[in-house]
Amino acid sequence: MLCAVLMSDALFRKVIWRHFRAYRRDFPWRRTKDPYHILVSEVMLQQTQTQRVIQKYGEFLTRFPNFKTLAHARLSQVFRVWQGMGYNRRALALKRLAVIVVRDYKGRLPQDLEQLVALPGVGNATAGAICAFAFNKPVPFIETNIRRVYIHFFFPQKRKVQDADILKLVARTIDMRYPREWFWALMDYGAMLAVRSSQNPNRRSLHYRKQTPFMGSRRQLRGKILKLFIIEQKLSAKTLAHRFQKPIGELKPILKALATEGFIRQKAEDFTLV
Known about the structure:
Its EC number is 3.2.2.31. The chain has 274 residues and is mainly alpha-helical. Helix content is 59%, strand content 4%. The protein has 3 domains: 84 residues; 102 residues, Hypothetical protein, domain 2 (Endonuclease III, domain 1, Orthogonal Bundle), CATH 1.10.340.30; 56 residues, Winged helix-like DNA-binding domain superfamily/Winged helix DNA-binding domain (Arc Repressor Mutant, subunit A), CATH 1.10.10. A 3-stranded antiparallel beta sheet has the order 1-3-2.
């Protein structure tokens, strides 16, 4: 059993670095400093386990090796490669982001944190990760494994720990000389805690939410509908109701949401993939 104890910043860094030297993980996105490749990996890693990302990462980069090819690709092509990853909004955001980078930044991902956060699908955590991993900048950010580490070491008894309090500690303890490797080290320690801790420290986060079951959910039905659009391009609500044996009234809110988000557009009685 791993015991959490309050410790000095110096000792904390020593523990994290020691674990990293002994047990550092290897991923394809850690073998590159290409901002586009790192962006793709970070967007893929949002709410998706690393093993699933490994399976799609290489395929995606082979099909869309840079911002220009992704920006000029048809959305249906992007979705076909993305299939199996889930959370298709991320693929749509990546496509839109590529268009903006090609149009406004001459095909080069900006290094400024505020400019990164303003891009589609890039929040504070993803922007901070890009700054660290692509540009080696000591920008504090929090993701699941990092949150787990700081709660474990600095809030061993506290419940409802706020990210704002954790972020202060992240900023205070960053290794300013090696930010890229430091954040890798934090993530690797957090991944270890997820396996070896008797209780998940993230359950004590104020922001912890237990994921609802996927099977039989509206999210699952939405994914099936979008997958059918990728295959057939054009479908009506009546056709979808027949295919899925669902009342049209249940499908209409999903179709409306897909249209609002930019996945599909309506023409008369039919909907077509954008």
